[in-house]
Design brief:
By secondary structure, the chain is mainly alpha-helical. 64% of the residues lie in helices and 3% in strands.
């Protein structure tokens, strides 16, 4: 989806909130509207579907959230887009693009950006800005709607007509908001073990590559002020990273190799880089993925088999699954405890025909279903084929719930209840999920 349209949706929904919130947003309203924003974006944008990125970045988020004392549970979604951006909406929802992940050289930069967005949420910057508004400009709303459905250049021109109104409504973060999110985010990142300079390092990088020109000025939510960088560097003169970030280079390989701009030229660069430095495990992994994608399974497995890395079992196991050498993949991955390895082990069991072990392995991964909903989808399909239609429909409903498709979630939950029996314990648990989908009555802040 066009990135401008992505922002139009977020802005449009924010304007819609104003019509219902003349006297400010309560906590329950933030949660309700946050779900609506997520559902709209999930239907309109391409959500990244890579298990490595989804699970690993979710673990970074969890590490940050554990020390942040947030007012809401944080829901992180990775959007498949070459645009370098991240933003937070009301109710604890954070969106980050694969383009931004690919621009990070080190994990602490990504963690710094994510912590910055958590800072906006913790300080409730969006809600506070909406609280100040007492009316909605219907003309501006119509302009933004028009901009959503017109092509790139024309859409940009139409939307520009609403610039003054957008600025009047103060939907951009103020400089004070950005600085407060910088400071709060740097504290969160440092407490999580990433040091306090990740966001400053990323800001310097974006400034050096002209990243502030990627978006129209009226949509820029992150002005790259030199003073922000200086302030952070003064705050953290002795900043250091204490968490293990050694797997992040492999994440970058996938972010860059599987991005939308992937081309045969990139493949050639990766292979040449590997030929010049065969002992580099990251280069070797990238080359094995390229050969795997081209269907050259023997070359791919040969390279992956000789990767000198503590993560070799995962890297090789994935290549074996891609090559449909499932029994070898099972032997390679059996006993692994990290969730990404377990996911590929489940794939290997399924490919070998051992549905029972595949389903059991996926059930262990259910806690990661919000980070990588494909886990729930595969489990649903397996259970259905095994004749357990009640659980099949339930987990298909859970999958659609995580994808923001409440209509399909509700439909499958209703089928699950019918299969379980209305008075069963399983049906009552599914009904609780359905109840949680319904808007809650308002409560005071």
């Amino acid at each position: 989806m066009n990135h401008k349209h992505f922002f139009f949706i977020a802005l449009l929904l924010c304007f819609t909130f104003l019509a219902h919130s003349a006297y400010g947003l309560t906590i329950s309203e933030e949660k309700k509207y946050g779900k609506e924003v997520f559902a709209e974006i999930a239907r309109s944008a391409t959500i990244n579907n890579d298990p490595y990125l989804s699970i690993y970045v979710q673990e970074i988020k969890n590490r940050l959230e554990d020390v942040a004392n947030m007012p809401f549970p944080v829901v992180l979604t990775i959007i498949e887009s070459n645009t370098v951006d991240a933003f937070a909406t009301v109710g604890g929802y954070v969106f980050i693009t694969t383009g931004l992940i690919g621009e990070c050289d080190r994990e602490e930069e990504l963690a710094g950006v994510m912590a910055h967005e958590l800072g906006h949420i913790k300080k409730r910057h969006i809600a506070k800005r909406l609280e100040k508004q007492k009316f909605i400009n219907i003309g501006m709303l119509a302009t933004l709607i028009a901009g959503m459905f017109i092509g790139d250049q024309a859409g940009s021109a139409v939307a520009t007509a609403g610039t003054a109104s957008a600025q009047a409504l103060s939907l951009k973060y103020s400089r004070e908001d950005e600085e407060e999110a910088d400071k709060e985010g740097s504290v969160i990142a440092d407490r999580a073990g990433y040091g306090g300079l990740g966001i400053a390092d990323f800001l310097k990088k974006i400034r050096s590559i002209g990243g502030d020109k990627f978006l129209p000025q009226y949509l820029l939510t992150h002005p790259y002020h030199e003073s922000r960088i200086v302030t952070l560097e003064n705050m953290w003169p002795n900043s250091r990273v204490t968490v293990n970030t050694s797997f992040f280079p492999y994440i970058l390989v996938r972010a860059k190799l599987f991005g939308k701009t992937h081309s045969p030229g990139i493949d050639e660069v990766i292979i040449n880089r590997y030929l010049k430095a065969r002992n580099d495990p990251v280069n070797a992994y990238a080359a094995s993925l390229v050969f795997s994608g081209k269907g050259k399974t023997d070359e791919s497995i040969q390279i992956a088999s000789h990767i000198d890395s503590p993560y070799k079992r995962l890297l090789l196991g994935e290549i074996l699954v891609n090559a449909r050498r499932y029994n070898e993949a099972i032997e390679t991955l059996r006993g692994s405890r990290d969730p990404t390895s377990r996911y590929f082990l489940a794939r290997a069991y399924e490919g070998s025909g051992n549905r029972e072990m595949a389903a059991a392995t996926l059930k262990d991964l259910i806690p990661y279903g919000s980070a990588y909903p494909e886990i729930l989808y595969r489990l649903a399909m397996l259970l259905g084929r095994m004749g357990d239609e009640g659980q099949g429909f339930e987990y298909l409903g859970r999958y659609y719930l995580e994808m923001g498709r409440h209509d399909l979630a509700r439909s499958n939950f209703e089928k699950a209840i019918a299969k379980y029996g209305i008075n069963s314990h399983q049906a009552r648990e599914v009904m609780k999920l359905m109840d949680a989908m319904e808007p809650k009555k308002d409560v005071k802040k």
